[in-house]
Every structure is written in structure tokens, then in C-alpha cells.
Write a structure and sequence with these properties.
about 210 residues, M1 Pyruvate Kinase, Domain 3, alpha+beta, 3-stranded antiparallel sheet, 8-stranded mixed sheet
Length: about 210
Amino acid sequence: MHKQNGLMPPRYEAGRQSPAMRLISVNVARAREIVVGHRTVTTAIGKRSVVGEVAVRPLGLDGDEQADLSVHGGLSKAVYAYPVEHYPFWRTVRAQAGASLWDETLPHGTLGENLTLEGLRESEAWIGDVLRFPRCALAVSEPRTPCFKFNAAMGFPQAGKLMAQSGWCGFYLAVLEGGSIEAGQGFTVQPGPREVRIDELFRARVPKPR
């Protein structure tokens, strides 16, 4: 396996499906200013877990904000979900890069996701699929594209490149039926047209780095 900048990229595995799909964590954040390099930028990428029910509205979750509405938020990108299965990889590469200790945990929401999901990866999510939770329904809309703020949040400059290389991007969700959502809930997937998968669209938009 090719190795770049001392970091080992993950192997792409298509077609794996967990028997149970569950919402591990619900994460929100208000926009705040951080320093990236020599400039100050506004970001809400550093989400943190919340306990209890959270209202789900057409433009996202209560208590959450998006800093740059040109790339995040809006009706089609109201909620961002990320598979918990990729978290061990990000913990490892952050430690390899010196951004964290080897035994340091990586809190859910660190990748900027509102929903940390178990059992649904990018290779199993199709544009138009509907995730049905007990009290809301969310439609898979498009993949997330990493930016320089993602590098800053992860603590090392190769993070975006590794996301592009792996295809482990997570996916945006539109709110089909508002209501509420809570960590620990199970969910089901109602198939959509099944024409384009999230990983396929991501690779079409973001070429794999050489």
C-alpha cells in the first residue's frame, strides 16, 4: 500500500454492510472564529455531542450553525452524517502526524458531523435514499468535500488529502420530515432511485491525489 507523508491511507472496501444501523451521537456547534495560518476564519466544524432529543427543522438541528453557507447548510445540506467505522483510522493518522497522543480519544463530532452513524458507509448510501428515524426522516443528498478548515480541525495538513484518497467523506442529508432525533436511536434506509452512490459521486468530484 502506498504511503504518503508518513501517513498510511486506508484501503477502500466496498459493499460492507452492518446488520444494525444506529445513531451513535448527535452533535452541534455554534460558529466561532479560529486562526488558520495567518488569518482568522469563522467555522462551526468542531461539533460536540448533546444529550436528549434535538429538534430537526428544514435547515438543520436546533443549536447548530454553519459558518459558510456557500458550501454547508441550506435545504439540501441541512444535516451532515459521518460513519463511526472510520473513527479508528482518523485517531491513528492524527497520532502519526503528531496531532494527538496515541491513546487520545477522538470525540464524536470532531469531523464536523451532526450525526455519527453506525452501519451505513459511503459505499452503501445512495443519493435519494431516505434514513427513517423514529421521529424524523432525512434524505441522502450529496457527499461532503473537505476544505482547509477540515485540516485545521484535524490538526494536520494532510487530512483533506487523506479524505480525498480514501473516499471516507460522509454525506449530507436533506430534511424530508422534520421532528426530533436522539442518540441511541435505530434507523432504517428506504431505498431511493439507486442510481448514484455517495462514494461514486465523491470520486467524480474530488479526484484521488497522486
